[in-house]
Amino acid sequence: MAAAGSAGLPATVSEKQEFYQLLKNLINPSCMVRRQAEEVYENISGLCKTTFLLDAVRNRRAGYEDPHPRVRAAACTTLGQMATDFAPGFQKKFHEIVITALLRTMENQGNQRVQSHAASALVIFIEDCPKSLLLLYLENMIKSLHSILVIKLQELIRNGTKLALEQLVTTIASVADAIEESFIPYYDIFMPSLKHVVELAVQKELKLLRGKTIECISHVGLAVGKEKFMQDASNVMQLLLKTQSDLNNMEDDDPQTSYMVSAWARMCKILGKDFEQYLPLVIEPLFKTASAKPDVALLDTQDVENMSDDDGWQFVNLGDQQSFGIKTSGLEAKATACQMLVYYAKELREGFVEYTEQVVKMMVPLLKFYFHDNVRVAAAEAMPFLLECARIRGSEYLSQMWQFICDPLIKAIGTEPDTDVLSEIMNSFAKSIEVMGDGCLNDEHLEELGGILKAKLEGHFKNQELRQVKRQEENYDQQVEMSLQDEDECDVYILTKVSDILHSLFSTYKEKILPWFEQLLPLIVNLICSSRPWPDRQWGLCIFDDIIEHCSPTSFKYVEYFRWPMLLNMRDNNPEVRQAAAYGLGVMAQFGGDDYRSLCSEAVPLLVKVIKCANSKTKKNVIATENCISAIGKIMKFKPNCVNVDEVLPHWLSWLPLHEDKEEAIQTLNFLCDLIESNHPVVIGPNNSNLPKIISIIAEGKLNETISHEDPCAKRLADVVRQIQTSEELWLECTSQLDDEQQEALQELLSFA
Domain limits of the chain? Predict the structure, then answer.
């Protein structure tokens, strides 16, 4: 152990005071701005290296003993907070010492509360720890967790102690979640004990333990998968059904309720269609909870004071010695129940059809349930999934349901006060349009929607101006700037949802929607002005990309609005802007018609320049670069007269394969197949000299999961490989340049295609 005064360890009184102040800030990070948090991390990194915190966790301190449980519990809490604030760097840097220390602390039977804090900190640490790192400690972690589970189960049986066990089952669930199928070998040692806990935890004071253990069982089942879990599925379902039956006779705020609701959803995911037989038993309690009306009251000041000890109520002062009160204890359960109804509609589709009408009649009014944000989010999220279910009953039934949904959904976009909820409502509306298709909006709907979107865009610009004014005010400082940046991020997020709605309209209505769109055109043109912030230009270009892709060749009438912004933004410092511009140039070639020929010719040298830039393949830039490579492929394929194909092809081939943008990668592979199948001499190369490169590209495509079993391109690529295999000498030359993983990837491709 490092001695006091060694690197990073606070030795003097003042250093120790500073250290504890750092810990205080870490435990309550909301008081810090981001830069201060980063400075704390830099200061505290050295402390972790010298095991100062970890010694406190393990009941040791440099030079003297300090066994107080509060110190150890606080140290666990601090490690958990650091794991949250500085993830994933903290996990990658300190995984060995933190995991080891927390496991040892959990094994120490001296204090249940310290054990519980250690188990909680381990859960937080695991959340952002790469799976590959967790697997390094898996054997020790499993051995430790199982031995503690056995001991705590015996303590529960003997004297009813439950605190550490409640947290332990949550930790086991987190480990299973994190390592997924790697938990299969350990399933049989955990599941009997977990089921035993559920069977034992029947007393009122053990409700929370029972709920958390049920949650753990469902997480473990989801991690190991249906095949392994089926040996216990029937038994577990009976435990759940018994608990469900008991819950039907319990209070609305029973702590087991939310755990049960979520556990049923995981069981649905595990069992798939086999779950449908249980749905009638699950659905009624969900309806009851989801449709529960909150308790509200208008109270005078004295009444509020009398009720102040009741944690289940929140109050808003209305003036004149009156307050509005709402009982919040049931709202979380209501939100969870609504979210589970969404989940069942999404997962079961045909199996959920008979419930769609009842659910939609309940959910549509909840778009205005302002007592709880997550209830409104669930109500919005449900709409496209309910429409998918309704489609199974035919077009007339679907149309009736959409008529019931559409108007309230549009109105909610115009009236929703919370940005996070608004983004979900807008997203739901966009998805619903895609489900319903061309003609789903009547003239009144379009008029109302146009006015709302126009107001959102105008508000976006106005808010930017107001933020600039605030930056000039006397009280402007770093804290104000952080607040302004948060506001800006919220505004930009809503802008992305405006883009999503327009995308859904362009992709379903095609050029028919353009006359309606022209009321928004000046605002979209304003977004791509060179003076605008880069997110404005990114999303403005994305909107024009959609017009080009889905409304061509009519889109050319707007070319003078986006021609120069599209070309000039290929040089932008922000890769997101370059990506939007490059994608637009690619779809011009693919969908734009002959009018776009000159623009495509101008685009090629700009695209090449981006690709050849020294840092073009860095993590930050690679997506934009791959869109440039794909765009050049599209120009060669769809506008070959705009470029010297034979001159560009060797360069294009050398830039392959694409790794990051899967959609563009599969397009390039399809074009490569076209060229190979036509025996293009430049691609094949003299004396088949390019075939090893081509085989390498195909192997990498499979290895990086660009090529999926379902994609028709997979068979085309497999046929290319088989054709090369007919020449033993050529095949040997190609495969000799591949590593083992690439060769295995090729064999897998051949086996399924």
Answer: 16-129, 161-276, 656-753
